[in-house]
Write a structure and sequence with these properties.
The chain is an alpha/beta fold. The chain is built from 17 helices and eleven strands. Strand 4 (about 210-220), helix 10 and strand 5 (about 250-255) form a beta-alpha-beta unit. The chain is globular. Bound molecules: uracil. Uracil binds next to helix 9.
Length: about 425
């Protein structure tokens, strides 16, 4: 999720010429705005010439009236062009990336990015921090001692040339309009507007100047979209905008009713990624990584799976960590670097089959443990979370751990136990 705008920096002054109330009224009446009108609105807002109250009214009009595909494309373009768009040398390999709408235990980027970079493509991955119940790639990366997510554009390009991949955060000069508009939407009840979501996500991804993009649109209790239908609509709208803007966009719809993999929490998830990159790890994560990789890679699924098994992707990840100032020698002992004082077994009340492992509640419990942030400024505890999570359909004995809770103290542990009781069901 984007963080609130602190500084839109040094963007040049802009002369605003349109009558804003007329644009708000036009949208309020359900009429289609032109590319110029949308461009002026976004530019005027980014430069501080349109006050928050007018932009809020416009966002609410969009919330109720929606936008046509053309309007959504114009909004995406205007937001993308509010800041820098990455540039690459002529003749450079195809640029590919993935966007996930976010889920519990979704650590796919940490495996997918180095895996894709084993192929003849560049992976310029700009990711976000976690907010609310879903964790963010940047927080997971920062649990690796020294890992620097703030490398500048020149250094990032040099890194692409040498190892084919970077994983960084959004700088102030990428899509400043989105940062500012998202902060406003967050406090005006206008986040769940499909065209605003589409433009927000796609403007940031398209600022990477990609050739191919795969979308992982999740649905279910632990996802932004609760139903498959909503996820399909969002995926179709994002795909349409990508196509209109000349990028090959494909998508997967993936369920998010139970956590992905067996770990939730920052360092715990990195440890799970290390297992996968070393040829092991949970099947569901591996399958999703390969499903997504296939969409944007020129390598076959068998070749991609081989790179996970034979250490090629692992070596690429080590190069990535070192290239971004991280201590790759700590990767295999990250559980000791970030060790929670309490590791509590949560036992199965009876023998049987796991029927429910509710992603949303486990995500909320992870937040209570301190593994996520409720507001953008919160600090994240890298050590806490859950490991050894049983998957739906697995058989357990009475008293066998359904998961392990990694807690900072007794108080946070006690706060999550009732949530876990609600989120897990075993039936005989
Ligand atoms: N993620 C984003 O980046 N933007 C939205 O509007 C919603 C989710």
């Amino acid at each position: 999720m984007p963080e609130p705008l602190e500084d839109v920096g040094t963007f040049s002054a802009h002369i605003f010429s349109m009558h804003v109330p007329s644009l708000i009224e036009k949208k309020r009446e359900g009429k289609e705005l032109t590319a110029d009108e949308i461009g002026e609105l976004i530019s005027g807002f980014t430069h501080g010439e349109i006050p928050d109250y007018q932009m809020s009214a416009w966002a609410m009009a969009v919330f109720f009236r929606g936008m046509t595909a053309a309007e959504t494309q114009h909004l995406t373009t205007a937001m993308m062009e509010s800041g820098n768009v990455l540039e690459y040398p002529d003749g450079s390999p195809p640029k590919v990336d993935k966007h996930s709408t976010g889920g519990i235990g979704d650590k796919v980027s940490l495996v997918l990015a180095p895996l894709l970079a084993c192929d003849e493509v560049w992976v310029p991955m700009i990711s976000g921090r976690g907010l609310g119940i879903t964790g963010g790639t940047l927080d997971k990366l920062e649990s690796i001692p020294g890992f620097n997510i703030h490398i500048d554009e020149r250094r990032a390009l040099t890194q692409l040339k040498s190892i084919g991949v970077f994983m960084i955060g959004q700088s102030a000069d990428i899509c400043p309009a989105d940062k500012k508009l998202y902060a406003l939407r967050d406090v005006t009840g206008t986040v769940p507007s499909q065209p605003l979501i589409v433009a927000s996500i796609m403007s940031k991804k398209l600022a990477e100047n990609l050739d191919r993009l795969v979308l992982d649109v999740k649905f279910g209790s632990g996802a932004f979209m609760k139903t498959r239908k909503e996820a399909r609509q969002l995926a179709a709208a994002m795909t349409e905008v990508g196509k209109l803007m000349g990028v090959k966009v494909t998508h997967l719809l993936s369920p998010m009713d139970e956590p992905l993999g067996r770990a939730v929490g920052n360092a715990l998830e990195v440890t799970e990624c290390v297992e996968i990159l070393q040829g092991g790890g949970p099947e569901d994560v591996i399958k999703l990584v390969l499903d997504l990789a296939e969409q944007v890679s020129t390598a076959s699924r068998a070749k991609l799976a081989g790179w996970l098994k034979d250490g090629t992707a692992w070596r690429k990840f080590i190069s990535l960590v070192y290239a971004q100032d991280g201590d790759a020698s700590s990767l295999e002992t990250l559980g000791q670097v970030h060790r929670a004082p309490i590791v509590h077994q949560f036992p199965a009340p009876s023998a049987g089959v796991v029927k429910k492992m509710d992603a949303e509640t486990i995500g909320r419990a992870s937040l209570f443990l301190g593994g996520g942030r409720q507001t953008p400024g919160d600090t994240v505890d890298f050590a806490v979370g859950f490991s050894g999570i049983k998957k739906i359909g697995e058989t357990v004995e009475t008293g066998e751990p359904l998961l392990f809770v990694h807690a900072r103290n007794d108080q946070t542990l006690r706060s999550v136990l009732p949530l876990l009781e609600k989120s897990i069901e075993v039936s005989g």
